Structures are given as C-alpha cells and as structure tokens.
Amino acid sequence: MFIKGGTTSNGVTYVGDNTPKSVGDPSPQYESLSMFYARSRAILGGQDVAKSYDDVLDVQNYQNLLLPFSPKMSWEQYTFYKSEAELPGLCAQYSRVLVGGLLRKKPQLVLPEGTPEDAQEWLTHDFTGDGRGLIGFLDEALKEEVTTSRAWVAVSFPYVPEGMELSPSQQRELKPFPILYKAESVINWKESVNPLTRRKQLSRVIIRQPVERPDPENEFHDKLVDTVMVHEITAEGYYQIRTYELASESTGDDTQVIAGEYRENYKVETGTASWELSETSMPLSNGEMLTYIPIYPLNGSVQPSEPLLMPLINREIALYNKISRRNHLMYGAATYTPVVASDMTDEEFEDLTQAGLGSWLKVKDGEKIDVLDTPTDALKDMDRAIESATVEMGRMGIRMLTPDVRDQSGVALEIRNAGQTAQLGTLNVKISNVMTRIITTMLNWRYGTEYKSTEIDFQLSADFNPAPLGADWLRLITEWYDNGMIPRSVWIGIMQANDIIPPEYDDETAKSEIMDDELITGPPVEVEDLDLEAISAKTQNEGEESNDV
Predict the structure, then answer these.
(1) How far is Cα 208 from Cα 252, in angstroms, rounded to an integer?
(2) Pairing, β 256-258 against β 339-341
C-alpha cells in the first residue's frame, strides 16, 4: 500500500506533493535514517542506554523495540523481563577499539612556511572553543562518526557586539573554533551548482537542536528552547544565518536526557509548530562576508548513509534477544512449580502461595497435571544459538572475537583483517581531507591569510601511511640520513610512524639534552674550532702536577 506523506512500518518514508511543512520539519532522507541513528546509539551506548531505548512502546508496529516479546504482556511484565536482559556490549567495545586505533598516534600537522609561530600551538593544544586540544576534539568527532556516519563540523568565530572595543591582548584571544553537530541535529540540507565554478556546493544547511537559555523564573535551572538555525547562501552569494525559535504555545518534540546527553528524534509535524524568526546575522571574516557555508560533513559526503557498524549492530540486537530469552528461561528453570489440587478458596490459596517461594498452579479438585518440566533442553538450544551468533559476529569483522587465532598464521590473520584495515584506511583518508579543509578555514579566518587546503598537510593516523616497515628498511633509511640523502625531519617522521621513538618526541629538546649529557660523547669538533693554546697550557699544568707527586 502506498501512503502519501507518511511513514510505513519498515521505515520507508513517502513524500506527498501537498504536505505542508515548516522550517523545523526534517527532510525525507533524515526520516528514513533516523531509526538507524537511534538503534546505533542504543547499542553503542551500553546496557543502560539500550534499556532506556525500550522505555517507550510504539504500540502500532513495535518498530522501536530492541527486546520484543509478546504484545499481550502488561507493562509491568515487560519491565520485569527487560530487567533480566543482558547486552553483550561487543559493538560498544569494538567502536572504542576503532576510535582508539585511529588516535593511537599523534596526528601529523604540517603548516606552510610563513605561518605565525603560535599557529601550531593553538591548533594542537587550544583547538576548540572550550580550550580542548586537537586530539580531544577528534576523539569526540570520531565517536560520532563511527556511531552514525553522519558527523558535521562547523567553523564559528566568537561574537563581538557592535561598538565594543577590545585591547590588543583580547583581540589575540579571539580565535575561530569548530562546533560538532550530531546526526540528529542536521535535519535538512541542499546542494546547488556554483554559477562561477560550476561545481556543487552546500547552499543551505538547517540545524535544529535545543538551546539552553536563562530562565527568569528559576536561577538554578536553564530552560530549553527548541531552535532552528538556517545556514544559507543568499541570492547575492553571501553566507547568512537565520535563527528561528519555537513559540511557547506550540507543541514540539520532547527532548530526552539519556546518559547525560540530549537526545532528539525530530519528525514531520506538518506545519503544526509555530516558528518565530528571532535573529538574522551575516558572519564576517576579517571584515569581509563569506561566500561559502563553513560546515563540513566529517566523512566528506553530503548524502547520508547507514552507520558504519550497522550490520554488526543488527547482529548484536539479535544476540541481545537470545541472551535475554536465555536468562528468562534460566529464571524459570531455577524455580519449582508445585501443583495444588484442592477445592480451597482463593483466599486460602493466596495464603498458601505467600508462605514460600516459586511459582504455583491451582487446579480443580479431581484434575491432575502429571509433569511440569523445567526448560533445560531449551536452555541448551539457546546456548548453542548464542555461541553460533557470537562466532558469526567474529567472522563479520570484530577482530577481538575472531576464533582460533592461535592456530592461524600471520598471513591468514592479515587476510582476515584486511577488510577492516581497508575500511579504517578509507575512513582515515576521508577525515584527514575534511580536517585539512577545516584547519585551512580556521587559519584564514584568524590571520587573514589565503591558504589553500593543498598547502596544509594533515594526517589523522600515521598507521596507514605507505611507509616501509621492518628492521632492514629502517636500517636503510638510517643510512640514507647518514649520507645526507634525506633530511632529519623525514627520518624522524618515519621513526615515529614505526613506533621506534614516541609520537610526542621533540627533536630540538632531545638535541639539547644530548649536548648536556656528560655520559654521551659529543659530536665531532672541527680542528679550526679548537683552542690549541688552552689545550697546551692545560696539558703542561697536568704534567707539572704529576712530577710533584
């Protein structure tokens, strides 16, 4: 059946021609993938987050359930069953391994010659608006990218009210900073062809999220205001931001707080919400208006796609169900079920059941139940199904679950992990390219330069560099350095990439420590640099002292 302007039970969204929509309504592409974002966050967030995902039942099609059981269960029965549930947490741990693998080494950032001296320090240690370093920002951004494959990064600049005078030191402290937007916040976007370059570029990005504002009636708790920010290119070709706020009398989607984070799940409200334009601004970069939108998808693709780990997440959801049902069977197998055949009243039967533990059955006088076996056979079958599902997830790519690793050669393990390595390598290249564009924008915005992204070299992880490995190769490269065929910086970079020296190694500091170390023989000194008279006088004095002795 075709449903115009609605969503079917399998998550497919159909768009009607005459459906009225407001600025806060998400696009059909967003709606078709919002369920994947929610399920991915539930599984990768851990057991408590997964159970909170099932707190609200969709009684029409039960699409939102991770733990479906029986529609005839009461809410109390389902809550009790959910308390027995046990999430394996394999994908959550695997996502941490992926992020940690990409950030195992310090990212490499090489700025062009002539860049201000404080630029490297600023980008490395004071990258974000709240003073966090580059690695701290990348850790948060990579978690979002692995979870949803839809992380967005915007470049912003501190707002200075018109007419406000700043001292030179205050002006130096004004620095552009990145803003990480989650997949649920970017509800709509549009690409268009630039009439000058004939290339596609973002012409509109609509971001919706709750914003904390001071509450005049409560000094201790801020109020959440549903806000929509329309980042767009005007007809004149300049960057503009329009900010809309949801009117207080309108009904918007409630924002949940799960595991300390705001969670939104926006749906089409068909124009029922009332949005009011609160502000229109045109950011300036060094006194000039921007001609592009400084917002970038972290993986470089504007069009959305399923999360990276969705095949493994679906497998873990099935495993989550099997383990939870096994626990429910174990609860039944661990209790006894007495059968009372009597004509006692219900009040007397209730007194009897409250006198002990376990489950009770009451049948009529003269009736009989022969055997109530515990589900031990079903437990064995469920354990086999759990083991099979775990092995299957290991074969799909989770390296920590790969079976029989001790009996396989290094070549076999390399082939088994080749898919994962290739996937990580591709993600590393995509994010490195986008981060290069972000850093270029920040440099030009702060210093008024006109650098191009091709002039800046940023590499997220050196593990995927095509650098030679092995002792023989490293010995050969050292010979090249000794013979003056490669510069010292290249030699140091290769040593860092191969874990011979720490990633945070500082060559200038190391040189000074070597020169000050008395146990290390210093570098050879040229003959013309020696003070021969001082050496001769010192030798003569030492000879006279030995004669006196």
Answers:
(1) 12
(2) unpaired
Q: Are 299 and 145 in contact (CB under 8 A)?
A: yes
From residue 506, alpha-carbon distances to 126, 478, 503, 510, 511 in Å are 19, 18, 9, 6, 9
CA distance 495 to 501: 6
Q: Are 437 and 445 in contact (CB under 8 A)?
A: no
Q: Is the pLDDT of residue 448 over 90?
A: no
**Non-local CB neighbours of 128 within 8 Å, separated by 6+ positions:** 136, 137, 177, 178
What is the spatial distance between Cα 244 and Cα 265, in angstroms, rounded to a whole number?
18
pLDDT in tens, 88-118: 888 888 888 888 888 888 888 989 888 888 8
Summarised one tens digit per residue, pLDDT across range 311-322 is 889 888 988 888
Radius of gyration for the chain, computed over Cα atoms and rounded to the nearest angstrom: 33
* DSSP letter for each residue of 368-404: -------SHHHHHHHHHHHHHHHHHHHHHT-GGG-TT
Question: pLDDT by residue (tens digit) across 397-437?
Answer: 666 555 554 444 444 444 455 666 777 888 888 999 999 99
* 283: Cβ contacts below 8 Å, ≥ 6 apart: 156, 157, 239, 241, 289, 290
- How many angstroms separate the CA atoms of 162 and 348, rounded? 82
> Looking up tokens 């079903």, which residue turns up?
378
* DSSP code at position 131: S
Task: Say if residues 209 and 227 touch (Cβ distance below 8 Å).
Answer: yes
pLDDT of residue 19: 66
pLDDT tens digits along 1-49: 233 344 443 444 445 555 678 888 888 888 888 889 989 999 998 888 8
pLDDT in tens, 126-145: 999 888 999 999 999 999 99
Residues 296, 438 contacting (CB under 8 angstroms): yes
Residue 448 — left, alpha, or beta (φ > 0 → left; ψ -120 to 50 → alpha)? left
Output the CA–CA distances (angstroms, integers) from residue 132 to 31, 119, 178, 262, in the order listed: 33, 15, 11, 21
**What is the token pair recorded at 539?**
């030798």
